[in-house]
Amino acid sequence: MENIIPSETSVLMVGLNHRTAPVRLREALAFSDQAAEEALLAFKQRFPSSEVIIISTCNRVELYAAPHGSPLPTADELVAFLADNRGVASAEAGGSIYRMQQQAVVEHLFNVVSSLDSLVLGETQILSQVKHAYQRAAAVQAVGPVFHALFQRSFAAAKDVHEQTGLGDGHVSVASVAVDLLRGVFDGFNDKTVLLVGAGKMAALMLQHLMAVHPGRTIVTNRTAEKSAEMAGRYRLESADFSRLHELLTAADIVLTSTGSPVPVITTEMLKPLMKARQYRPLVIVDIAVPRDVDSQVARLGNVYLYNIDDLERVAQNNRGQRGAKVDLSREIIQRHIADFMHFLAARNTGPVVKALYHHCRQISDQELDALLAANPEFSESQKQAVRKMAHRLVGKILHVPVTELTTQEVHHRRIHLAGAIQELFHLLPPESPRSEPEKTPEDKSGG
Amino acid sequence: MSSSIEPYTHLTVLQFAAASGAALSFLAAFWLQFQISGRRRAALQNASVKSTVPISPNWAVGNGVFLTTLLLISRMVDAHRITLPLSDYFDAFLLLGLVLSLLWAYLRWTRHLWALATFLLPMIFALMVLGIVLGLSGVKHFGAHNPWVAAHIASVLLGTASFAAGCVGGITYLLADRRLKKRGQAGWDLFALPSLASIEKFTRHAIVLGFALLTLAAITGIFRAVRDPQLMGRHWYFSPKVLLTAVVWLVYGSLLNMRFVPILRGARCAWLSIIGFALLMTVFALML
């Protein structure tokens, strides 16, 4: 008997990331756009019946394959392909490479795309990188029905995760929180001036985060001119004399203070008249000094936003508290999407058996109906229709339970076993086989 | 109003019901959006809380737009017009709602201004309710067949839409300013708001457009009053409507010059955009 159960579509993945491999190996295995395209074509040549996608970012290189028929690649062959293609010895790369199949691949991909597996939790760059990898593979016809479904669903999962949990919002370090607050006031920083008052270690640390937003101008001032000159030299900043503080405050949009002064360096009396000279432009002051450098009453001035180290720590603490819950919620969302995709995969794998089973039963039902109607010519048209409908509903209802049992079976080998048993017990043939008769009526879904 | 024009048909029960349904849809969309934000926050505290709502706010807005469009078509049929129905305040405020719905759609899909779209919804609701009240409280026919009148009404209508958007910008600015001033205390992250600079830019654009349209409306209005002395009397320039409109024009004119009057920056500018819109609504009330 011809086997109508398709070779089970499996999903395989091999890869390495920032947790499993050193940067040297990641660099060696990384693909440029062109190299990835060539590798996809080479893979298709070697395994023509397999879908393939290569994701290559600075933190990970992963090869996803969905073989539909022979030759079926094994995980080891995928590792060898990856290593050979990049000119790295398999043995060297092998220890850092993880291998996954079926649901583990799906779960991993969804975590990657939703940025739960990223170095910076919640970042959205990975989503566009995976989209790019998917489009690149689709452009060379390396993507088929399984990967179209898998990757599209992973994008939907990532969208739900970001929208419903705000995973990327709220940083947990004090310096990042300060940058978040600045983004709440300003649109961009290209035309903004940052003033650093004090040249201590904390200021230097905060400054590194501030430099990441590329401010237009950064000036450092300190009571000890040598210190500010030294810091300005180290970070390529402008250095200014402390006696010009009033003038500098007029020019600045963002002020970062961290002096060791026992009394406030910036007071309301000092800043109030300056606001007019500043034309009431918004001013954000981040005071990370202890004791404070800025009089707390300054916060009452219009268009002035003052944050001290306690404020920043409070926001960071709040974000830290929410982060665990956000991750849990994200995983729940991902689990829903995984279940949907696995259901799709199961239905795809058992589809031919289900189709053949319905076809077989309908054929018997139609033969019996024809015999019945031929023996009873006195039946009116409406009676004939009623009998036909009843026969079709009967088939649908009888098959409903076994078909549901088969298509919702989550254990892979049990599903294959059930499909094999159904084929053997009913002597099923493919519906498109020349030995089968054409279907007379469409599938009656109402019963099933 | 010219006596040659047929008195306009009064609001029918069906039209009233449809207009109320549309207005409530916009309010429901606002409520749903807040529900989503609240539930998401609750879901982070308690995993068993669902973070979704049964109906998307987008559907609620879609429903409001659909009902408003149907209503305008029915008014068009009633008035035997093939152009937009602009016969009275009811029609005008319905159109205003529709124009602001378009703005909502633009803001909804502009990532960094997303929150402004949410705050626009109660504004649409309020304007539509005002339109219904004006429609019920005796209809005042515009006589928009006259091109000057049509230009006057169209510029008033679009100018009002712009100022409504400016007012929403002002309210959002004050909320964002308050949140930033709270320095990380409770209520910090319920709703993501745009940066102050983005909101200020949006408000300024809305006011610039509104001011140009209000100026056009004033010119066409004055021309109409001068040409037709019977319309508002000989001393039309002393009427409360005209005087208040002049005040509104000055308020918005000063806002436009905030570069030269820097003290009006920030929260003051936001307050003025709200006050200016409130005065504009008073002008409408005076016309009842």
Which key phrases capture this entry?
heterodimer; A: 448 residues; alpha/beta; Beta Polymerase, domain 2; Rossmann fold; 6-stranded parallel β-sheet; elongated; disordered C terminus; B: mainly alpha; 2 domains; flat
> Based on helices, strands and strand pairing, what is the structural class of chain A?
alpha/beta
Shape of chain B: flat
Give the end-to-end Cα distance of chain A, rounded to a whole number of Å: 27 Å
Which strand order does the major sheet of chain A show?
7-6-5-8-9-10
Number of helices of chain B: 9
How would you spell out the order of helices and strands of chain A? EHHEEHHEHHHHEHEHEHEHEEHHH
- What percent of residues of chain A adopt helix (DSSP H or I)? 40-55%
The chain-level mean pLDDT of chain B equals 81
CATH topology name of the largest domain in chain A: Beta Polymerase, domain 2
In CATH, what is the homologous superfamily of the largest domain in chain A?
Answer: Glutamyl-tRNA reductase, N-terminal domain
Strand count of chain A: 10
Which range does the strand content of chain B fall in?
under 5%
Low-confidence stretches of chain A: 433-448
Give the domain tally of chain A.
Answer: 3
**How many domains of chain B?**
2
Largest sheet of chain B: none
Query: N- to C-terminal separation of chain B?
Result: 14 Å
Cα Rg of chain A: 33 Å
